[in-house]
Automatic annotation (TrEMBL), chains A, B, C, D, E, F:
InterPro entries: 4-OT, 4-OT-like_dom, Tautomerase/MIF_sf. Keywords: Isomerase. Belongs to the 4-oxalocrotonate tautomerase family. The keyword Iron does not apply. This is Tautomerase. Residues 2-60 form the 4-oxalocrotonate tautomerase-like domain. The lineage of its organism: Bacteria, Bacillati, Bacillota, Bacilli, Bacillales. Its EC number is 5.3.2.-.
Amino acid sequence: MPYVTIKMLAGRTDEQKRACVEKVTDAVVETTGASREKVVVFLEDMEKSEYAVGGVLFSDQA
Amino acid sequence: MPYVTIKMLAGRTDEQKRACVEKVTDAVVETTGASREKVVVFLEDMEKSEYAVGGVLFSDQA
Amino acid sequence: MPYVTIKMLAGRTDEQKRACVEKVTDAVVETTGASREKVVVFLEDMEKSEYAVGGVLFSDQA
Amino acid sequence: MPYVTIKMLAGRTDEQKRACVEKVTDAVVETTGASREKVVVFLEDMEKSEYAVGGVLFSDQA
Amino acid sequence: MPYVTIKMLAGRTDEQKRACVEKVTDAVVETTGASREKVVVFLEDMEKSEYAVGGVLFSDQA
Amino acid sequence: MPYVTIKMLAGRTDEQKRACVEKVTDAVVETTGASREKVVVFLEDMEKSEYAVGGVLFSDQA
């Protein structure tokens, strides 16, 4: 606790994911007082064919 | 806003997904007054080995 | 199956929610071939103090 | 109804997943009075590179 | 890890929720080999006005 | 995009939530290159009676 889920388009490098998880955890600890070892982060990749804004899939956007 | 997530068994064609996202977005815009460009849709595929009803996985159902 | 989750800012009337659920179900049935009686819809209300874009809560936006 | 989602690190065998779904369904039926045929279970696999505790991805833990 | 989310119509007693969480945890530990102290369960109540099957909200079903 | 969900026990102040959303957004922008105005954060409060670790609800823990 807390539990953080980050949903992004696929394509970030391992290095970006590693940094993202670390800095987001820092931010949660600093602002909520949660213990660092209790902060859980889940990363979820979205494909462009699974994500639409305005009724159009990203894989179909020009 | 709004954010719509549609979870289905895998196997729909790209054409079905495209139509689903478009028509669901139409329905949300028409009934809630949300701006079309703010409607977000996420599609999530489930495998038959990840989905159970009545305690039995779909991959095990006759 | 399918399972549809619709997350919106609170404030829609019961009439809007009823229409939204009905029309979204129509759209899913029409485009995916799912049986109408198997389409499940979950509505989730968000408060303005629980939703941020660009790092600012809606309750804090001018 | 009820809808149960079980998120675990990937790597369980089909036999473990089958048993997990069956026993969790038993537990829900026994304790809530829900009809067995209405209990839905979704399994979600996490990769070690998508899951962090304490700011460190599992794929980076010694 | 594992993380279990149980979504049900509101109305279960505290005693039912307590038993549900305990028995579901037992089932997960027994079938997956996870350590008991690592099993996390989230309960989520749904209102009848937020849940529809076949395009009709439960609050509207006869 | 990205979409961040932060699930925590209820009880944080508005000031803590405001800071959390801002700093988490900073962290995501800095590490993933996403545009700040595209980062969406959802906050979700859990009650102690809806959250269990090791099979025991937080509301029952000594």
